[in-house]
Amino acid sequence: MIKQKLIKPVVKALVNNDVMDIIEDNMMPLKKLMAYYNCAIMQVETKFNVLNEEFSLEYDRNPIESIKTRLKSLDSIVKKLTKRNLPITTESIKENLNDVAGVRVICSFTEDIYLLADCLLQQDDVKLIQVKDYIKNPKPNGYRSLHLIIEVPIFLKDEKKNIRVEVQLRTIAMDFWASLDHKLSYKKDIPEDEASILKRELLECAQASSDLDQRMEDIKNRIVDK
Ligand code: GTP
Ligand code: MG
C-alpha cells in the first residue's frame, strides 16, 4: 500500500506547480471549515465539563457519566450530500449539514439530561436551532435520546464564526441500546424474518430499559430525599 506521506510528492511530480497551487487553494477552505467544527466540538465539550464540575460541587455527584465527540469524516459528508442531491462545497456543508460536529453526552439519569440541556440552552452564546425529543417521543424502533442542534461562536484571530453542533444526550441504558441497534442496522446479511424478530426484541428491550431507568431514578430520588 502507498504510504500517505508519499502521495503528495508523487502528485507534485506529476502535475506542475500551478496545478498543485490550485488544488491546495481549493482544499484550504475545507480544511479551515473542518478545523472550525473541531473548535466548536471543544467549546461545547468544555461547556458540559464546566456544568459537570459545578453540579458535582453542589450536589456531590456527577450528572455526566461520559462525553464522546466525533467529527464527521469527509467520506460521510460527501456521501450524505450526494444522497440528498446537494452540491459538494463548503457553503453547502455549512448550510445543509447539522451533524458535522457531534457531541454525545451520557448521563446516569433522564432528569440529568433535561437539567443539562436547560443549562446549556440558557447560556447567552448558545443558539438553539432544533430540538428532537426522542425521550418523550421515542422513535417507532424504540430509539431514545434528546437531540439538540445548536450554534456556538468560536473566536478566531480576528473574527467570530457561528458553528453548528449536534448534541445527543442519553442515559447509559439508552446508549447501550443504541449501540446494539446500530450493530443490527449495519448487518445487511440477516434474513428478513430473523431481522424482524431481532427488531421486535430490541423494541421490547427499549421499553424494559426505559422502565429500569425510571425505577432507578425513583430510587435515587428517594435516597436523596432522605
Ligand atoms: P441523520 O440521520 O444524521 O441524517 O439525521 P436525521 O435528520 O435523521 O436526524 P436524527 O436527529 O433523527 O438522527 C441523528 C442521529 O441520531 C443519527 O446519526 C444517529 O447517531 C442517532 N439516531 C437516530 N435514530 C437512531 C436509531 O434509530 N438508532 C440509533 N442507533 N441511532 C439513531
Ligand atoms: Mg447524523
TrEMBL record:
Pfam families: RelA_SpoT. Residues 69-192 form the RelA/SpoT domain. Signal peptide: none annotated. InterPro entries: GTP_Pyrophosphokinase (IPR052366), RelA_SpoT (IPR007685). SMART domains: RelA_SpoT. This is GTP pyrophosphokinase family protein. It comes from Intestinibacter bartlettii.
